[in-house]
Fold this sequence. Notes:
Layout: H1 3-32, H2 34-44, E1 46-52, E2 58-59, E3 70-77, H3 85-96, H4 100-109, E4 113-116, H5 125-128, E5 135-142, H6 151-154, H7 167-171, H8 173-176, E6 181-187, E7 200-205, E8 213-215, H9 219-232, E9 236-242, E10 248-254, H10 288-297, E11 306-309, E12 312-315, E13 318-321, E14 331-334, H11 335-341, H12 344-354, H13 356-365, H14 390-397, H15 407-418, E15 422-423, E16 429-431, E17 443-444, H16 448-464, E18 478-489, E19 495-505, E20 512-518, H17 524-542, H18 545-548
Parallel strand pairs: 2-8
Antiparallel strand pairs: 1-6, 3-4, 3-5, 6-7, 8-16, 9-10, 9-20, 11-14, 12-13, 15-17, 18-19, 19-20
Amino acid sequence: MGFGAQRFKALFIMLALGFSLLGLQLIRLQLWLGPELEARAIHQQAQALVLESPRGGIYDRNLASLTASQRQLVLAVFPTLVEDKGATARELAALFGQEPATFRSRLEKGQPFILAVNRVFPGLAVFDAGSFPGVLLLQRERRYGERALARHLIGYVRGDNGRGVAGLEQFYDPHLRGGQGLDLIAWVDANGNIIPGLGLQQLLRGEAGGGDLQLTIDARVQKIVEEVLDERARAGAAIVAQVRTGEILALASRPNYCQDRVKEYLDNTDACLLNRALRNYPPGSLFKIIVTAAALEEGLTRLDEDFYCGGYVEVGARLFRCHRFEQGGHGPLTLADSFAESCNPAFIVLAQRLGSAKLVNYAHRLGLGSAILGLPEEMKGHLTDEVAHGGDLANISLGQGSVLVTPLQVAQMTQAIANGGVLIPLQLIHKGPLTKGDVLEGKTVLSKGTVADLHTVFYRVVKDGTGTAAALSSWSSGGKTGTAETGFKDENGQAVSHAWFAGFAPLEAPLLSVVVLVEEGGGGGQVAAPIFHEILDRIIKEIPAAELNQN
């Protein structure tokens, strides 16, 4: 065999092998990979529209929805399925009161979109009847309903991507995004026609119940608190906590807002998006609780120690007035009397005995000066580490000057005193992702003797002191009023003050602690104490005590 014949034979073998391999590949593609490739081709022609972003629900301790989700009508539009874009654009424009060009432009882009229907129109029937191919009338879940509770605490999500941007929605966003969502899929061929046997399908994504968050909030208590604030406070906050466990049963802020209409509030002057329960405020006379607790614990005073109020106290070159300055003061009175009447001189004297370091230490010990829940919008308050001048220390002892607290911190302080001097970090999560603040670690911060004395003076405030408006008919109660100066005056030249009341009930076996702040409301005894009374009075009447005591 010549050299040319050998070359021809080698070339023939190579070609035969090549065609054999090609044939095997074709057989593999058709028999083994055919279904997979067919599925890939179909998916490439699928048009997906997110009806509901995957997100877990937020519930109270009894599994009542706090977001009060509702079903909402929507129009799902698939432009590639629209046969007459001009007619469809005109019909949509007439329905929503906009220019046809707006909808024609969206239809020309070819991307599916959703139109929320905020009220029922007679013209919707044409879409329900299928008169306009590519436009479907459907229902989807509207996350925030009209009866949603604890809105500032829960926060809200962005409509374009479904991510949480405030409150618990933001803080627990990774967990909440593990919930279940719903997509609408249109299976179309290369020409935009519905694929027979597939057509339009609804596809669930995620795990049912996944991403849910169960709070310690009791929707019944929350509703009562919100209704009372709506009636009595233009701006402010209120917190109700279970004394024994530190679980928060209600946390409300006013003014309120609608979570799915946030853009409408961005230019409001009332700052309704702020959670005032987590904001800094001067505590006013509430800080006298810290002064009294520290002085008693350090053995520097007794409830029956005598003091004298002539209407003012001089510290250095500064004059500090009592609220009875115009009447010449209270005259002689004990520490217990001074606490009940919120008389300033006794507490200025006690603060000088303690010194700033000890006073600030007890404030930290009772929960002031640090975040409790760790939410993004939660402030830490402010406590000065060292005070050089006596006048500044006197100012702090009255809850003015550089000291700032949040209503949540005041609730923590009140819980510890009500709970026999055992501070349990306030709890918010009943079931969900664990955080550092969710671990129950009770810590004794005051002795039983000091706590007993504090309970006595708390009772005096309500019995015959500045907080008589907080007294309850069926339960005993105790607390402390606070009137915190803002440094501003109203149009009549009167000083503008924040009104506070912090207390608990019943005294014999404390069950609930309640803190009320009315922003720029006036006197604590006249404004905040009656709110404390009404909140607890309604809770006692409407909810069995045994249920309130459940963990």
